Amino acid sequence: MTAPPGHRRLARSLARALPVSPAVVLLLLFLAGPIGYCAYIAFTDLQLTGQAHESFVGFENFRTAFGDEDFINAVWLTLVFTFLSSIVGQNTLGLALAALMQRASKTVRTITGAVVVTAWVLPEVVAGFLLYAFFRRDGTLNAVLDFLQLPSQNWLYTLPILAVSFANVWRGTAFSMLVYSAALNEIPKEITEAAEVDGASGWRRMWHITLPMIRRSIGTNLMLNTLQTLSVFGLIWVMTRGGPGNRSQTLPLFMYEQAFQKSMIGYGTAVALLLLLVGSLFSLVYMRLLRTEV
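Above: the chain sequence. Below: its structure as tokens.
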């Protein structure tokens, strides 16, 4: 007896889904499960200590966040840190290094690549200590400025958000450089050579030929760098711990302070969900831009 067509289609669908079912189970167990539990905690008054049972408080944690000046300050500093270190710093410097290495000698490419990649593969805590030693009042940067008889200052006190932004650029530029190096290598040499013969300057070739041809790589790199930068914690914690005061306290540090230093797990988790929302919004914007490209 032949099985009905509906049963055969169901059997084929199950057969196709069987190879990916272990991955789906793992994603549900280790990704969707924790996110769902965190979403539940964000609507409670759960505390780390001194509480027997949590209570459901609805949107109270979120109302508290948007009425908290420290939270608004953390959101602003997170956007500044992301814009300076990721969108401008890592993206621009990575593209510049990749373009320069296209014309550099093999020795220069090898040395530059080794130096930049070494900064990238260093553990975040180690990189934080190195940049702390560089920016501290009696650190390397001020020693160089004093040698050149230029004014020095306590960079981690006067310009903390700029210092940690520079540190993130120093550590993360290698990823952008590798992405753009691969993208530039895919551009046919005949196109750039023809433009050069026609008299186009280096800037005009970059603006009218190179950038349009690697725009998808630019969008992908921006999306990945932005998401990574939004979650930076160890680098800033080692260098400034969010200080002085809260002048370098981004959302990950603010979330940690509320959840683990002040023991307000529910409130800290609500902040974490808002950070997840910010990252999702950035992702949607970049994906929209990539999808509308011809």
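The mean pLDDT is 85.
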